[in-house]
Amino acid sequence: MAFYPVQGSSKDLLTGKTLVIPSVSLANLPQLAVDLLIHSLKLTRAGYIGLGDTVAPMIGASQDGLVTGGLEVYAKEGLDLVVIQQRSPVLKDKKDEHVELIKRFVEDIRPSFTLLLTSLDAANQDDQSLLTPHVSILPPSPSPTETSTPVHTNIRSVPSLPSFSNLRDTTATPYPPFIPGGGLSKRILIAFKSLESLPHGTIAAWCVEGDNRADAHALAALVLRLSEASQVEITEPREWEGLFGVVDGWSGGAGADAEIYG
Questions:
Q1: Which pLDDT value is given to residue 1?
Q2: Residue 90 pLDDT more than 60?
Q3: Which residues pair with 78 in a beta bridge?
Q4: Which GO biological process categories is it annotated with (predicted)?
Q5: CB of 159 within 8 A of CB of 222?
Q6: How far is CA 52 from each of CA 74, 90, 92, 116, 139, rounded to the nearest angstrom?
Q7: What is the rounded CA–CA span in Å between residue 68 and residue 109?
Q8: Cis-peptide, bond into residue 174, ω within 30° of zero
Q9: Predicted structure pTM score
Q10: Residue 214 in contact with residue 234, Cβ under 8 Å?
């Protein structure tokens, strides 16, 4: 069993909707963006994925007083968007099991479209890609049963991931491609590739590690735009207070605290 609903929820709340999955990648940028989506869209926890044995054990407290875990699902009645939030890294010896767990969850809820969010190491950017903070990674051929969801339609307006000429043969276009800084993104896409009739795509954000709040806002805004929900105001959860240090501190970065960063 891949999904364990909380009381009052069920798999039916998730079935047939657009699913957003953050890959644990550089700067934890996808997780930060999903935090903003959860708070701004007022999503509530629908359940848990797995038993928590593929990620590092952790518990925490949310601003509404709930105990949170490492791998949860959030949704809202009447909203087409479902998101996974992964707050804990995958255990090194459980990577294959974790990818299989995500794959089984996707199979169970049969989303209309699955959107993977990931990071890209900005050290690999060339001059041209400096103008495109976000890029898309799409399978070479669409699923024969693909429905025309807003995200599926609009993601094609996002520039494609460029080839890394120094790292691979650019005469071919393998899928999934090399994703520098992307964590398990490539493994997840390989798993999705093995699923027949699974409409999916990826948005990757170039970034470096640091105060990534602005990057998270930009990525969350892009997801909302692709979902045709740009009117939603993005707000930060209370848990973000002091996320990268207090505002009165080191002048080298927004909110960076000299006690933390020197």
A1: 78
A2: yes
A3: none
A4: proteasome assembly
A5: no
A6: 16, 10, 14, 20, 30
A7: 22
A8: no
A9: 0.90
A10: no
Q: How confident is the model at residue 250 (pLDDT cuts 50, 70, 90)?
A: very low
Q: Count CB-CB contacts under 10 A for residue 38.
A: 21
One-letter amino acid for residue 53 of the chain: D
- The structure tokens 């957003």 sit at 20
> How many Å apart are CA 162 and CA 135, to the nearest integer?
8
Alpha carbons within 13 angstroms on the beta-carbon side of residue 124 total 21
Residue 164, classified by CB atoms within 10 Å of its CB into exposed (0-12), middle (13-18) or buried (19+), is: middle
230 Cβ contact partners less than 8 Å away, ≥ 6 residues apart: 221, 224
CA atoms of 169 and 160, how far apart (whole Å):
17
- Taking Cα atoms as reference points, which of 108, 73, 103 lies closest to residue 87? 73
Where is 156: in which H helix or E strand?
none
113 is written with which tokens? 């479209």
- pLDDT tens, 19-36? 999 999 999 999 999 999
- Give the up-direction half-sphere exposure of residue 258: CA atoms within 13 A in the CB hemisphere: 4
Spell out the alpha helix ranges (H) of the chain: 29-40, 95-109, 150-154, 185-193, 213-226, 258-261
Q: How far apart are CA 144 and CA 235, in angstroms?
A: 38
The pair of three-digit structure tokens given for residue 82, joined into one six-digit string:
């479902």
**Could you report the per-residue pLDDT of 171-223, keeping only the tens digit for each?**
566 899 999 999 999 999 999 998 878 999 999 999 999 999 999 999 999 99
Residues 211/212/218/223 CA torsion (nearest 10 deg): -160
Distance between CA 53 and CA 94 in Å, rounded? 8
